[in-house]
Amino acid sequence: MSANPITGQGTSPEAWQASRRLAEVASVQAQALVPNRSRAVIVSPHPDDEVLGCGGLLQALAREGRHILLVSVTDGEASHPDSRWWTPQRLRATRRQECAQALTRLGVPHERMTWLHGGFPDTAVARHEQALTNVLLDCLRPGDTVFTTWRHDGHCDHEAVGRASAAATRQIGARLLEVPIWAWHWASAQDPRIPWRRARKVLMDEAALARKRHAVQAFVSQTEPDPASGNPPVLTPRTLERLLHDFEVVFL
Ligand SMILES: [Zn+2]
Question: Which of 8, 21, 75, 81 is deepest in the core (most CB within 10 A)?
Answer without folding.
Answer: 75
